[in-house]
Amino acid sequence: MSTTEDVPRDAASDRWADVRDLPPSAKLVAKVLDYNETLSQSQLADETLLPPRTVRYALSRLEDADVVETRISFSDARKRLYSLKI
Q: Looking at residue 86, what DSSP letter applies?
């Protein structure tokens, strides 16, 4: 009987490979974006219960890893909306 633990993980097929080595806050933000698709920075802070500064740091790390997409909100041009690329 085979389990998922017996199957070797191939980095190309593992969608979370780019996130694996990031800080826990970045992993949490990525997972929340996975469930909610698109959120603003303040919505991410509310959903994750992380301070806004920590969310900013997590988003910058995710952007450096090329894991999130950023776009300007149509309803409020001062806000950016974030979504996962993976």
A: -
**Rounded to two decimals, what is the model's pTM?**
0.81
pLDDT tens-place string over residues 25-46: 999 999 999 999 899 999 999 9
Helix axes 24-36, 52-64, angle to 10 degrees: 80
Q: What number of helices (H) and strands (E) belong to the chain?
A: 3, 3
The torsion angles phi and psi of 2, rounded to 5 degrees, stand at: -100, 140
Helix ranges (H only) for the chain are 24-36, 41-48, 52-64
The closest of 73, 11, 18, 19 to 42, measured between CA atoms, is: 73
Contact 19, 67 (CB under 8 A): yes
Q: How buried is residue 8: exposed, middle or buried, by Cβ count under 10 Å (0-12/13-18/19+)?
A: exposed
How far is the C-alpha of 29 from the C-alpha of 65, rounded, in Å? Answer: 13
